[in-house]
Design a protein that fits this description.
- Helices cover about 30% and strands about 25% of the residues.
- The protein is built from twelve helices and 24 strands.
- It has a seven-stranded mixed β-sheet with strand order 14-15-18-13-22-19-21. The protein has a five-stranded parallel β-sheet with strand order 7-6-5-11-24, covered by helices on one side. Strands 2-3-1-4 form a four-stranded antiparallel β-sheet, with helices on one face.
- β8 and β9 form a beta hairpin.
- α3 (about 105-115) runs parallel beside α6 and α3 packs parallel to α12 (about 505-525).
- The longest helix has 18 residues, at about 205-220.
Length: about 525
């Protein structure tokens, strides 16, 4: 087949007819010579709001294929190469015990899935509840403020991404087709097939929950095992090799392999790892606020009059302050909610969440400021404690509710006493407050400097009644659990994995890292 790129089709045209017509022009052939068309990628070009295009990349079966390729010198036309993820068991060493996966977020789930597919019968340990019970627990928290510290938006089956927008886009280069494997697993377990071609795919928290249940059942059918409400509280190590894990301070499970897919919020687990002399180092992260605008305003700014023909709009903003500090948007949720994502008593942190249809009245994103090593104390856990201190202040500022402030009051450093046209679209109660009393001055000043610039890029972004909600501290882990080229830590048999270990950010990259770690295990150990 022939791969044809950069097929530009106006959004308000008959897509099927126009795609075929434009492929014919690029290949310089008649339309009837095109036997079949398979869409491989689809994106939106909205640089000119008066003329917005879908951009397609397609594989085409055509008559006289070799002749066309020989005479067409366009960079947009090439031979279509096979795309397939392949893995086989090549490990020589035998395992005495089943591998243990700690954490059932994307990294842990996809690592388990691949291992189960190849006959390794993994045991997955999750400190929180399975998704059906976890949803009830989280809804109870939203309604009452009563927090379960082991089962909440951060912890439980599916990980923190379960209560998010379900964004799957990534800039990761992928010659090995791991992304294809991840998306194929998603689709096989109930995700819409469109994620295979969309430039910015998402499935929303509502569909993601169903996919996770299906993935669990598939892993179980392939010999895997799930243990819920099972926190790993200690490790057994002999001769610098893992020999077992201790669950809930009492149950000992022997093992040769432990995959640490613990997530970025497992602070007590990080402390345990430190005590066990597992090598870690600090890394940069970012903190800031969530912002809310009317979805209609964002859609209009991004798409103009064409907004009614397109899905809810996203955006990506960056700014470098006069003091060379980065400010940027993160985890943008069109038509979504700002959620109370707390996981520790008397601490408060927010995140964004959307359903698949993204039909909420507001769109939100995090506006965050980079935090580097020079901003912190020398101690390994200084970043973690920095996050926690901000979360304590946020809890106090909002009396346990999400602190909210209008942009005009944030700039003037005064508590908001009333709302404007934009009303908070939150999961969990909110309270008007002053975010300047929560965040360090260098963070608030950076955000204030960035807003006028963002307002030039998106009309209305810096309007006075823009809502700021705090605090956003868990953009990524402040730590890296060090691993070597074989993905092992300084203690053999321990495989740090995913966002919490510092090797990914978001659902797709975490899933990819889970697959990479599974590959390392498969290359070293057999499944006998």
């Amino acid at each position: 087949m022939i791969r044809v790129k950069q097929i530009k089709v106006p959004i308000r045209s008959n897509q099927e007819i126009e795609i075929k017509k434009r492929i014919g022009k690029k290949l310089r052939i008649k339309e009837e010579e095109i036997e079949s068309i398979l869409i491989k990628k689809k994106s939106i070009d909205a640089r000119d709001k008066n003329q917005i295009y879908y951009i397609y990349e397609c594989d085409c079966s055509v008559l006289k294929e070799e002749n066309i390729l020989r005479h067409n010198k366009s960079n947009d036309v090439s031979m279509s190469l096979p795309e397939e993820y392949k893995i086989e068991v090549t490990g020589k060493l035998s395992l005495k015990h089943r591998p243990i996966i700690v954490g059932s977020g994307p990294a842990g789930l996809f690592c388990s899935y691949l291992l189960a597919e190849l006959g390794y019968r993994p045991i997955l340990l999750e400190r929180g509840e399975q998704i059906e019970e976890r949803i009830k627990t989280v809804e109870h928290f939203f309604q009452t403020g009563e927090l379960n510290q082991n089962s909440n938006i951060q912890f439980g089956e599916g990980g923190a991404g379960t209560f998010s927008d379900g964004k799957l886009n990534t800039l990761t280069k992928d010659k090995e087709n791991r992304i294809l494997k991840v998306f194929q697993i998603f689709v096989e377990n109930g995700a819409p097939e469109e994620i295979l071609i969309e430039n910015k795919p998402h499935i929303g928290t509502d569909i993601l929950r169903k996919v996770i249940v299906n993935m669990r059942n598939k892993i179980l059918s392939m010999g895997g095992e799930f243990h819920y409400n099972s926190e790993v509280t200690d490790l057994e190590i002999e001769n610098n090799h893992i020999t077992g894990v201790i669950v809930n301070e009492k149950e000992i499970i022997p093992t040769d392999i432990v995959v640490l897919a613990i997530g970025h919020s497992a602070r007590n687990t990080f402390q345990m790892l430190r005590e066990k002399k597992i090598e870690m180092r600090k890394k940069n992260f970012a903190v800031g606020v969530r912002v809310e605008h009317k979805r209609e305003m964002i859609d209009n700014s991004q798409y103009g009059e064409n907004r009614k023909y397109l899905p809810p709009a996203s955006y990506k903003l960056t700014y470098q302050t006069s003091k060379n500090r980065g400010v940027y948007s993160f985890c943008m949720c069109p038509g979504g909610y700002v959620v109370n994502a707390s996981s520790e008593k008397e601490c408060l942190v927010v995140n964004g969440m959307s359903n698949y249809q993204r039909e909420g009245e507001n769109s939100n994103s995090a506006i965050v400021v980079t935090i580097g090593k020079d901003d912190l104390e020398e101690d390994l856990f200084s970043g973690l404690e920095f996050q926690r201190e901000l979360e304590r202040k946020a809890y106090l500022a909002g009396s346990g509710k999400i602190p909210v402030q209008l942009l005009k009051d944030f700039i003037k450093n005064q508590k908001s006493i009333s709302l404007g046209e934009i009303k908070p679209n939150t999961k969990g109660d909110y309270q008007l407050s002053n975010l300047n009393r929560i965040l360090p001055e260098f963070v608030t000043e950076s955000i204030k400097e960035a807003f006028p610039n963002f307002g030039k890029k998106i009309k209305g972004f810096d309007r006075e009644d823009t809502l700021l909600l705090g605090v956003e501290t868990r953009t990524s882990s402040p730590l890296v659990i060090v691993r070597d080229e074989e993905k092992e830590s300084n203690v053999k048999g321990i495989y740090p994995c995913g966002e919490g270990s510092g090797y990914s950010g978001g659902i797709t990259t975490s899933a990819i890292d889970g697959i990479k770690v599974a590959e390392s295990i498969i290359k070293k150990y057999n499944n006998k």
